[in-house]
Every structure is written in structure tokens, then in C-alpha cells.
Design a protein that fits this description.
Layout (H helix, E strand, L loop, with lengths): L4 H8 L3 H16 L5 E2 L11 H12 L15 H14 L9 E4 L1 H13 L5 E6 L4 H8 L3 E6 L8 H7 L4 E7 L11 H18 L4 E5 L21 E6 L12 E5 L6 H15 L6 H10 L7 H16 L12 E2 L8 H8 L4 E2 L1 E2 L9 E4 L4 H17 L4
Parallel strand pairs: 1-10, 3-4, 3-5, 5-6, 6-7
Antiparallel strand pairs: 2-8, 7-8, 9-12, 11-12
């Protein structure tokens, strides 16, 4: 075999999201775009805010020299300082630019952090269900994945967490608002999580880092998402502008290290080295320059809110069992049959493209992304009704 066993395994277990995305393209070619309802991938159809487009034009028209040259590996100083100042305003801490490293999206940021932190055999705890590509990121950097189940409503099961933490635990990775469920972890649970991590860090005589993946933090339908920097000292946050500015294809993000992290300085230095080792080197120059110009701009949340209400009310009305999401743009209903893969395949009979919960480490469920035009959502409702009737849901 000419390729590595790890990549061969990844091919065999390739992402359900990508598989369904490709299936959607095939079906659109066969049946027409208006007859296919692809809820598989979180690729928002909504355009970036006006401020983004205006700022991009301004940058493109600028006569400033050197706008497309290399920059410091950690990113432009002015961009990192801008982000550090924002983080300081949002928390009780004083961030400096060296606490911020610009990354190629949140995925790039997660890989940089894991490359920086993990020794072979170190364990990373994840809560099911979760974005399954975390597995590849962790294993690729020598880590071992340790899954911890969540409650029936997909909230943190802290008793289970405490049982799973071992002497090898190096990182606890969370994602709130969550993909695939849309749940948001409340502050009281996060404070209890911090108490457990502090206790276990003392017992293990080494810090457990809380790594928070936050690309959906501004896609929220209730109160603000709790600020982890004010809750647990040894926190690193990774985020991107893919969702809040509707720029998923531009791959601009950053990682931020808590000023109270006991290994603050060495992690910052290590992250810059990891960028080079992994080949990301620099986050895109234009996008780095863009962020300070658009400041607090973000996408309009009303289409997401409307889609959530329409879809949730209809699915519950025809008999599906699901937790109403408080953030992001995903729902995670229970499959009417235990075999979620079979259910998703049968949903294709109605040209409904969904992702099985198995693709997120949670069998017996399925994910729906609703970051699409409301008219498409409305046209899909009769098909969800037919799907419910097929399984004799009430």
C-alpha cells in the first residue's frame, strides 16, 4: 500500500458531511436544485455584512505598499492588538497582542494548539456528540481521544467527566454553541467544570487546558455565551469569522491564550513554531487587515432565528423528538429508528439530505443544518411530514 494506514483509515471513515455534500451535488444535477433539500453542511447562504464588502473594496483600492507580503508568523501586530483589546473589554483580564495568534480558520487554530500541547499518548477529552474531525486532529498530533457522554439534553455530564479524567489527561475540548446540537452550556455548569479541572490539575500535578472551539459564539438566540476566560485560568479559545461574518471560505481565525494560563508565554511561542511545522505559516493577509475595519459587524441573526422557529415547530408537530437549539444553526433530532444511517438513506427518497448522528459520535440521531433561505425551509416541510408518516410518528 502506497499511502499511510492512518490516511487509509480516514478515507474509509471519511466525513459524512462531505459525503452528503457530494450526494447533494449529484442529486441537484439529476432532479434540479429546486427539488433537492440539502441540510447536510453548515455552509451559510447569507452574504457577509455590508461593512465587510465595503472594507474589502477599500483594501483592494489601497495604494499602500507591501499589503501582500509576508507578515510576522503570529499575524499582523495591529490585528492582534485589536483582538487583544476586544478580549480585554469582554473579560476581566488584560490581554496583550502576544496572547493572540492569527490562524487559518478555527480548524487551523485547533491543530496549532494540539500540536503545541500534546505529547504522544496524552489524552484529550471530548463530549459526545461532537464535530468528528476532532478525532483526526487529536490523533494526528499523537493524542488519544477520550469520549464523555452528555445528558439527554446534550448538556455536560460532569460526573462522567470526573470519572474519565486520568493522569494522562492534557486537554478538555468543548464546543458551545455546539455543533451538531445547537445547545449552549450554561455558566453554572462551566463553573463546576472549572472546579473539577482545578481539582484534577492539582491531583495530577500538571495543568489541564480547557480548549474551547467557539466559531458559533455570536450565533446565539438567548443571553450571551459565558466567557470562559473569566471562569477557568488555563483556557485557550479558538474561533473564526466563518459564521459571524459569513466568510467560511476565507479561513480567517485566531487562537487566544488566557493571560492567567500558567504556561502562557511558552504556549504562545510554541504556537508560532507549530504554525510553521504544520505549513499554515500565516493566516490570509487581506482577511487579517479586514478584521479591525469591520469591528463589531456581524450577520443578521433574524433569518437564522426564523428558520429555527419554522423548522423546530414543524418537526415537533409531526412527531420528531428534539432539543430546541439556543445557538449555532443546527438541530439534532432523534432518529425514528435506531439505525440512523439507514434512516438518513431512506430520507433521500424524499430528496432530504441529512447527516446521521453516527457522523458525530452519537448513534440514533441525525443533524439538520438550517443556514439556508427561509423559502427553501418552507418548501421542505411537506417532505418532512411525509418522512414522519413513513415512520408512523404522531
Amino acid at each position: 500500500m502506497s499511502i499511510s494506514e492512518q490516511i487509509k483509515s480516514s478515507i474509509e471513515n471519511s466525513s459524512w458531511i462531505r459525503k452528503m455534500f457530494e450526494e447533494g451535488s449529484r442529486r441537484i444535477a439529476e432532479f434540479g436544485a429546486e427539488n433537492v433539500f440539502d441540510f447536510s453542511i453548515g455552509n451559510p447562504v447569507f452574504e457577509p455584512p455590508t461593512e465587510v464588502k465595503e472594507s474589502l473594496k477599500k483594501l483592494a483600492d489601497s495604494d499602500e505598499k507591501g499589503m501582500h507580503r509576508y507578515m510576522p508568523n503570529a499575524g499582523y501586530n495591529q490585528t492582534r492588538l485589536f483582538i487583544a483589546e476586544k478580549l480585554s473589554k469582554e473579560s476581566d483580564l488584560s490581554f496583550e497582542k502576544n496572547d493572540v495568534v492569527m490562524t487559518v480558520g478555527a480548524g487551523g487554530g485547533l491543530n496549532v494548539v494540539l500540536k503545541t500541547l500534546l505529547n504522544p499518548g496524552d489524552e484529550v477529552i471530548v463530549f459526545t456528540p461532537y464535530f468528528l474531525e476532532y478525532n483526526s486532529y487529536i490523533v494526528n498530533h499523537g493524542g488519544v481521544v477520550r469520549q464523555v457522554k452528555t445528558t439527554e439534553k446534550f448538556q455536560l455530564d460532569l460526573n462522567e467527566l470526573e470519572k474519565k479524567i486520568s493522569l494522562k489527561t492534557k486537554v478538555v475540548l468543548i464546543n458551545s454553541p455546539n455543533n451538531p446540537t445547537g445547545v449552549v452550556y450554561p455558566q453554572k455548569d462551566l463553573k463546576q467544570l472549572a472546579e473539577i479541572l482545578n481539582k484534577k490539575s492539582r491531583e495530577n500535578k500538571r495543568a489541564i487546558t480547557l480548549l474551547s472551539d467557539e466559531p458559533y459564539k455570536k450565533i446565539i438566540y438567548q443571553d450571551k455565551v459565558p466567557n470562559l476566560f473569566d471562569i477557568y485560568d488555563n483556557t485557550i479559545v479558538v474561533t473564526s469569522s466563518s459564521k459571524d461574518l459569513a466568510l467560511p471560505g476565507e479561513r480567517i481565525g485566531y487562537l487566544a491564550i488566557s493571560p492567567k494560563h500558567q504556561d502562557r508565554s511558552i504556549i504562545a511561542e510554541g504556537s508560532v513554531i507549530a504554525l510553521r511545522i504544520l505549513g499554515f505559516v500565516n493566516a490570509p493577509a487581506f482577511m487579517q487587515r479586514l478584521l479591525p475595519l469591520v469591528n463589531d459587524a456581524q450577520v443578521d441573526l433574524e433569518p437564522y432565528r426564523l428558520n429555527r422557529e419554522i423548522l423546530y415547530n414543524h418537526l415537533v408537530g409531526v412527531g420528531f423528538d428534539l432539543v430546541k437549539p439556543d445557538g449555532a444553526f443546527y438541530m439534532f433530532p432523534k432518529s425514528p429508528i435506531e439505525d440512523d444511517v439507514k434512516f438518513v438513506q431512506e430520507a433521500q427518497e424524499f430528496n432530504l439530505l441529512l447527516i446521521p448522528g453516527s457522523g458525530f459520535g452519537k448513534k440514533g440521531y441525525f443533524r439538520i443544518a438550517y443556514c439556508f433561505e427561509t423559502e427553501m425551509i418552507k418548501r421542505s416541510l411537506p417532505l418532512f411530514t411525509k418522512l414522519a408518516k413513513k415512520y408512523k410518528l404522531s
